[in-house]
Write a structure and sequence with these properties.
- By secondary structure, this protein is mainly alpha-helical.
- The chain is about 85% helix and about 0% strand.
- The chain is rod-shaped.
- The two termini are about 35 Å apart.
Amino acid sequence: MAIFLKIVSGVYLAFVWLVLFLTLSVPTPLNVSVASAGASVIVFMIAIGLSIPAVALFAFGQVVGDVRIMRNNARLQSEHLKAMWAYYEPSNSR
């Protein structure tokens, strides 16, 4: 699931910035009505605003992956501890 979330957020982020570059390269009514530099700044700020959900989704995917790794490490440590108990205290094996 973590990889899926990262892929979806990456595709969304790439789409947002692709639309930004296409908007800046193709003349639009926004570029004609507003000064060219002003339109570029407005479109850039919109792209940054639309990128925030992708960053949050990527971070959530990273947390999901890290939690899975931590649970696996805890399980491995628990099994290792049980093996140590069984070796050093065979009468009290758990």
